Structures are given as structure tokens and as C-alpha cells.
Amino acid sequence: MIENTARLSLKYSQNVPKDYHISQMQYTFDFIYLVYKRDASIDGAIKGVAREYSLSKDYLLDYLVENKYLMNKTDKYELSELLKSYNTKALKKILKKHGLKTSGKRQRIEERILKNNLIGNSYYLSSKSKVFYKNKKRRMDIFTDYLFDHYYFDEFNEFYMDNYRKKEERIPVEFIRLHINKSAEDKNHDSFILNNLIMAEHFSKKEKYTKMLEYVLVNYCMDLNPIWKINDLKKHEGINSSTYDNILFLKDKLSKNTIISAYFVVWDSFNFERIIVPKYEGYRCLKDLLNLKDPSKISDDLDKKFYKNDDLKIKRITQKTLFDF
After folding, report:
1. What is the pTM of this model?
2. With the C-alpha atoms ordered 44, 46, 51, 56, is the resulting torsion angle positive or negative?
3. What is the tens place of the pLDDT at every residue in 69-93?
4. CB within 8 A of 221, min separation 6: which ones?
5. Can you tell me the distance from the alpha carbon of 312 to that of 316, in angstroms, rounded to the nearest whole number?
6. Hey, where are the domains in the chain?
7. Cβ neighbours of residue 290 under 8 Å, at least 6 residues apart?
8. What is the torsion angle, in degrees rounded to the nearest 10, for the CA atoms of residue 222, residue 223, residue 228 and residue 230?
9. Which of 143, 239, 249, 265 minimizes the number of CB atoms within 10 Å of its CB?
10. What tens digit of pLDDT does each residue of 166-175 get?
């Protein structure tokens, strides 16, 4: 499993705006879902969604009313009659309770109460809410099922709108691939590993284990050959624990021979800028992993032979001289 990480952004790769992970579309959808599909009360749904997204209940209610996702059952005549049943002192108490001004004549006090929806309101979902729910459901489901833990919804929503004509099963795959390509372009080792891990997790959920294997083995190759960390090899940990866990998981779903055969295909198709650990050494390590050899022992061997071996002068090793080696 992937450890919790900050969500990934193509648009704001360095400085993500505050609260960018909170999407109005997301919390509007969640609110409507609770009321429309789960028969939750308006008040209960507002409390639940406000708590989930760290919003104030007043802010969420105001947002839903202002954008006409919630409508008010009480008409102006009923409110006017209701206000007559309160004396001015009682109306001022209502305003004070909500932190609003209590000064002014009674007419101004009543206007303030009506403007802030403080009494007599009974809300219901508007037709706009139901249309919104139906129109957004598919993209929300896709995002929630496969991408929620790792990416920002707003960027995915833009991507979805540009690609909605494609088969839906292709949309999350291409969205993740976009991040993989960007991390390769930026030569960002950690982001590249993480995004391949996310893709592997995606295919694991879909039970497409052969496709999952491709991305696990790409990470395995990058674990062996951290080509963008050439100046920091002595701190490289070798085989990542997630890679190890995924290889053992796939051994049960596929077979040792399938994994080893796929390794050679992935290796030969991988665009290495520089090779540190040669193909045959990678094969031997993979075989040891599949035979449950202690991964820390494997990483120690890689350290001694490659990552911490100054005599090899790894920075200067080229693909040609390494094969000769």
C-alpha cells in the first residue's frame, strides 16, 4: 500500500494554494448525495460535510442557498407573520446569538434577520441539485474510486472535461500517465516512483495484474538504477519496500516465471539514461526476492557492490563500459 502523501499537482508543482485540495464541486456533490440518495436530513448532511472538509456549517449553508442548491420552503408572507410573534427584545437576542448587530429600528432588525436566514427556514433540495448530482456522478465516482488519495480534484475535473469522450476506464489511467510523464520530464525520481506506484495500485483494484506488473517492474528498474539521483547514490536505499511487497503480491497472482520474463521485457524497453546495476544483476536480485531472500540483505549487497563503492566511480560509468565490466 502507498503511504499517505501530499496530493500531486501538475498545475502547482511547487506552491499549491491554501485549501486547493478542497473542491466546491466535491463537497456540494457529497452534500447532495447524503440528502438525495441516503435520505439524510438537511441539517445532518450539512454537519457531516462541514466536518469532513473542515468548513463552518454557516459557510456551507450560505453557499448552498446562495447557489440555489437549497431552496427555502417558507415564503415571505409566512416569515412576516412569524416575525410579528416576536417582540423586539427577542429579535435582538436572536441577532446577538449569531454575532450580528442589534442596533437600529425594528424594521432594520427584521431585515437583518431575514437576510441572514435566522428564523423560519425549512430547506429542500432544488431541481438544480438533482441535475448537478446526475451530471457529476460519473467523474466524482472515478475520482473517488481511484485518485482521491493522491491527486487534486480540480485538475482531474479539467482533464475529465477535455477527455470525456474517451472510454471512462481510460480516463484515470491517462491522468496518472500525465503525471508519470511530467515527473520523467522533470527528472524527479521520487515523483516518478510514486506515480508508477499509484498506477500499479489502480490496476490492482481493477484486478488487471499483468498491467500492474509492468509498473511494478518499472519501479524495480528505477530502484536498481536511480538515474536521476546519480549524485546521491550513497543515500539510495536500493529495493523499495513497496516494490518488494508488490512483487510478492504478484507472485501469488501470477507466477515467478511470468514476473521474470516480464522483467527482461521491461528492462529492454526502459529508456535508461545511465545504468548502474546491470541487467543480469537485476535478474539475480529479482530471483532472490521471489525466493524470499531478506530484502535488507539484498540492499546491503547492492550498497557494497554499487551504491557505496567509490572504486567503481559510478558517476562516470556509461552503458557501454558497464556491459564491458
Report:
1. 0.77
2. negative
3. 998 766 666 667 777 878 898 888 8
4. 266, 267, 270, 272, 282
5. 9
6. 24-71+124-136, 75-121, 187-324
7. 247, 248, 251, 256, 259, 260
8. -130
9. 265
10. 888 899 999 9
